[in-house]
Amino acid sequence: MSSDLEKATKKLFKSVDKPCTVCGVDSAKLLCVCSIARYCSKVCQTVDWKERGHKKVCSKIKAAREAEAKKRAEAPTPPPSPPRDVFYGPAPRSFADDVRARIAAEHEAARARRERNPEPEALDAWVDDTRCPVCLEDWNVNFKATFFSCCYKRVCSACTRKVHAKSGKCALCRAPACLDDAEQVARLRRGVGQQNAMAMAQLAQAFACGHIGLKKSKKKALALLKRGTELGSGIAAIQLARIAGNQADFVAYHILAAQRGNAEAQFHTAAMYIHGRLVPKDEDEAFKWMKLAAEQGHLGANFQLGEMLNDNRGCTGRFEASEAGAIERYMEATRYIEAAGAILKTYEGVDKRDIVGEAT
After folding, report:
1. E strands in the chain
2. Residue (of 252, 321, 263, 322) closest to 292 by Cα position
3. RING-type domain: which residues (predicted)?
4. How far apart are CA 252 and CA 250, in angstroms?
5. In a 10 Å sphere around its CB, with 0-12 CB exposed, 13-18 middle and 19+ buried, how is residue 282 labelled?
6. Which residue ranges of the chain lie beneath pLDDT 70?
7. Is the separation of the CB atoms in 6 and 35 below 8 Å?
8. Less CB within 10 Å around the terminal CB: N or C of the chain?
9. How far apart are the C-alpha atoms of 224 and 201, rounded to whole Å?
10. 10 Å Cβ neighbour count for 78?
11. For the purposes of burial, counting CB atoms within 10 Å of the CB of 308, is it exposed (0-12), middle (13-18) or buried (19 or more)?
12. How far apart are CA 274 and CA 288, in angstroms?
């Protein structure tokens, strides 16, 4: 800092005409180190330093300046002043913040409840809450259901025989039956326009077989079934697998229908893995799909799963390799076989045309 001050002082002295300290001549250009004395020449400077004693005076001035600069450098730096408290934004309004906080807390609590108890996904896009919409009984996957083109719903065979067979009306919405094939086609086309997967699958089946007065067209059937599959229908996926025409699509759409919860597709997928047809043989994978179909009450899946447990096939890592594990496995096999027997009893008195897999 002292050097800056000296430079500034020298600059100031150079800019002002002052006389020589020794001889008094104007415009002295030489400035002493102490910035006090000025000289017109080296001769005057020598006279002042040696004869007049200015050299000692200059040394004292320089030492005093250095001591002052050192004292100033060692002085502690004062702490910065604390920042002022600044409030940004409008002042809180009465009760508004409390209301917003309460609403946010309610939304957060509702989200947490939804995460703890998620809505169960429908097993199939054709199934309404996994029940018949008339009697509200759980679907029996071993029996066929009747599709009504008026409301695009399926109704179990028992409700169909009780209502539709007697009155000729829809068992659900009580709409009169179609007078001819043209009216039925019109209803299905209206459902297709509404992006209804059930109507798409039914119209595709008519195109594939050439029913209800439609000209047989595999191309149209495939387009409808692909769209129905995109909308999430497992029934459309399994129908697409059957008419796809190549093995890769047959396997892919069968597995897709099985993933969407279609019991028949799960049973057939398990059968493919058991026998190694179109897919690599994998009894563990077969056991997984067979169990999913059995849990939905599929007759063949329950019986086949009991046989697999008896033969210890597909059970890798499911039971302990001990006598207790073997007993547990046989008990589970017995449970599935008994379940198959109980399902078989429900066939008594049922028209064969209502059983899945039987010819109509």
Report:
1. 30-31, 38-39, 145-148, 153-156
2. 263
3. 132-174
4. 6
5. middle
6. 1-17, 27, 85-94, 118-130, 164-166, 350-354, 356-360
7. yes
8. C
9. 7
10. 6
11. buried
12. 11
CB 234 within 8 A of CB 265: yes
Which residues have C-beta within 8 Å of that of residue 238, sequence separation ≥ 6? 253, 254, 257, 262, 264, 265
Q: How many residues does the chain have?
A: 360
Residue type for 216, please? K
Rounded distance between C-alpha atoms, residue 72 and residue 74, angstroms: 6
Rounded to an integer, what distance in angstroms lies between the CA atom of residue 251 and that of residue 273?
11
Locus of tokens 């996994």: 130
Q: For residue 74, which phi and psi values (nearest 5 degrees)?
A: -85, -10
For 359, list phi and psi in degrees, rounded to 5. -70, 145
Q: 38 pairs with which residues across the strands? A: 31
Q: What string of DSSP letters covers 36-67?
A: S-EESSHHHHHHHHHTS-HHHHHHHHHHHHHH
In whole angstroms, give the CA distance from residue 325 to residue 331.
10
Q: What is the pLDDT of residue 358?
A: 47
d(CA 197, CA 185): 15
Please state, as a whole number, how many other Cβ atoms lie within 10 Å of the Cβ of residue 235. Answer: 26
For residue 154, list its beta bridge partners.
147
d(CA 220, CA 210): 11
The torsion angle over the Cα atoms of residues 88, 94, 96 and 97, rounded to 10 degrees, is 50
Q: For 7-35, what is each residue's pLDDT tens digit?
A: 655 555 454 567 887 787 776 777 777 77
Residues 6+ apart with CB under 8 A from 316: 284
Intra-chain end-to-end CA distance of the chain, in Å: 110
Query: What is Dmax (Cα atoms) for the chain?
Result: 146
Gap between the Cα atoms of 59 and 8, Å rounded: 20
- What lies within 8 Å, CB to CB, of 209 at 6+ separation is 216
Structure tokens at 349: 């008195």
d(Cα 242, Cα 228) in Å, to the nearest integer?
Answer: 15
Predicted TM-score (pTM) above 0.70: no
Residues 276, 296: Cα–Cα separation, whole Å: 24
